[in-house]
Structure formats: structure tokens, C-alpha cells
Design goal:
Shape: globular
Order of helices and strands: HEHHEE
Number of strands: 3
Length: 72
């Protein structure tokens, strides 16, 4: 990703990749779908909220009216 000034932990990188695989053609996924993608990918449900928050805070995702959107 292009956000080299805010590097991701390995878990955050994996989470971002899982979310990217589940986005629609415009790079958007609902919050619930993102949680499902992460839990299906092996993360604990409680951990998914923290991962999503960190990806939002670091600028890899942003929230829109359509859901979560990839920034890269």
C-alpha cells in the first residue's frame, strides 16, 4: 500500500488483504461483511473491531455512507 509512513503490523496487513478480497468493484464493503471476512480468515470476533479501528486510524480504510472503503 502507499501509506509507508503508517506501517501495518502483520495482523493488520493480513486483515487489510482479507477485506480487499471481499470488496465490491468500487472498493467498498459493509462493516458487518468486513467483520465476517476477518472472522472467516481466522481472527477472533473481538479482535476484528480493533483491527478495523486501526486500519481506519492509519488511513487504509475510511467510512462512507456505503460502508468501509479502501483508500489505496
Amino acid at each position: 500500500m502507499r501509506h509507508s509512513s503508517t506501517p501495518l503490523t502483520p495482523s493488520q496487513q493480513t486483515a487489510l488483504e482479507l477485506i480487499a478480497q471481499g470488496t465490491d468493484e468500487d472498493g467498498t464493503v459493509t462493516h458487518d461483511a468486513a467483520v465476517d471476512l476477518l472472522t472467516d480468515g481466522g481472527f477472533e470476533r473481538a479482535e476484528t473491531e480493533d483491527l478495523l479501528e486501526q486500519l481506519l486510524l492509519k488511513g487504509y480504510l475510511y467510512e462512507s455512507t456505503a460502508g468501509l472503503r479502501l483508500t489505496g
